[in-house]
Design goal:
This protein has helices at residues 12-27, 34-41, 55-80, 85-102, 104-110, 120-142, 151-172, 184-199. It folds into two domains: 12-50, Arc Repressor Mutant, subunit A; 69-199, Tetracycline Repressor, domain 2, CATH 1.10.357. It has eight helices and no strands.
């Protein structure tokens, strides 16, 4: 019988979020419930409701946490890249895919339809991620490294491609995309470089 980890409840809210993330990894969104979270945490069935009114609130909190973690990873990658927009875009894209592979539970819920009025903080942090990519693209255009096309459309094109690589990487592993490559970095670099070459000025 699998032994459940012991949890300490100095901060029950974060404990419940950690458990919810585990449950997402094990059984997916549909199987998640506040009752299961309480059972694994070893608290009463009513305890989670002190922090989350319903399952949707739990998913929104996990999504918000995911966007914050992603922002840290992407910003760190950009800061370590060369002072070159193309390299920074590649670094940011690699960070995105690595985040997806390491936090697939978060990714499951980060792009669900969101009630703007109900979860304004989630909307804010999710938009900030796209804004960071927009800023990179805009900077590349201003420096003459990228085409002077619609910045929003170019940003969405890059994001869609990187998100697609991330989704495929989770499902099939990166080497299924390019058998001769062996690392996430190589796979992402190849795809992003091909895309950026097409968008280059």
């Amino acid at each position: 019988m699998k032994r459940m980890p012991k949890y300490h409840h100095g901060d029950l809210r974060n404990t419940l979020l950690a458990i919810a993330t585990e449950l997402l990894a094990e059984d997916g969104v549909q199987a998640l419930s506040l009752r299961k979270m309480a059972q694994r945490a070893g608290v009463s069935h009513n305890a989670p409701y002190m922090h989350f009114p319903d399952k949707d609130a739990v998913l929104a909190a996990i999504a918000e946490e995911g966007f914050r973690l992603l922002a840290v990873d992407v910003e760190s990658a950009i800061s370590q890249a060369d002072d070159n927009i193309r390299q920074q875009l590649v670094a940011a894209s690699q960070a995105y895919v690595n985040f997806a592979l390491n936090h697939s539970s978060h990714l499951q819920v980060m792009f669900r339809p969101t009630d703007v009025a109900k979860y304004p903080h989630l909307v804010e942090v999710s938009q900030s991620s796209l804004n960071r990519l927009f800023d990179l693209v805009k900077s590349g255009q201003e420096k003459g490294e990228l085409k002077s096309a619609d910045t929003h459309e170019m940003t969405k094109t890059i994001w869609a491609m990187v998100h697609g690589v991330a989704a495929i990487s989770i499902a099939y592993k990166p080497t299924a995309l390019l058998p001769e490559k062996t690392s996430v970095e190589d796979v992402v670099s190849t795809f992003v470089t091909l895309l950026i070459n097409g968008l280059a000025a």
